[in-house]
Amino acid sequence: MPEEYLLSIDVGTTSIKVGLFTIGGKLKAMSTQEYSLLTPSYVHPDMFFLPNVPGKPRGGAIESIWHFVEAISQNKELAVSGKDGLEATKVVVAIEESVKRRLPVEID
């Protein structure tokens, strides 16, 4: 029976990190790739923290939603494209399928 592994993916603001771990938690391989922001003025919101800012809530995807509404209503460029969203969704679906089947899957 082949050895089983866990794949960890961290997509950050300026880099992506991927780690391969044994089921017992031992790191087998790791890779990091840095990249430039396409829209450096965009601030990625903190998804897990809602600070109390009088008059304007922050975090929890609120800023992402505001950015989307502003971009659409004012005909501005979005921070991420529909193609970016599709590619990210393909990765998530592949991860879920791999976990369910307990086998590697290819991403189209």
List the helices and strands and how they pair.
Blueprint: E1 5-11, E2 15-22, E3 27-34, H1 62-73, H2 82-101
Give the gist of this structure.
This protein is α+β, with helices and mostly antiparallel strands. The chain has 2 helices and 3 strands.
Distance between the termini: 27 Å
Structural class: alpha+beta
Largest sheet: 3 strands, antiparallel
* Total count of helical runs of at least 4 residues: 2
Report the count of strand segments.
3
General form: elongated
What does this structure look like?
- With 108 residues, the protein is an alpha+beta fold.
- It has a domain at 1-36.
- 30% of the residues lie in helices and 21% in strands.
- The protein is built from two helices and three strands.
- Strands 1-2-3 form a three-stranded antiparallel sheet, with no helix packed on it.
List keywords for this structure.
108 residues; alpha+beta; 3-stranded antiparallel beta sheet; 30% helix
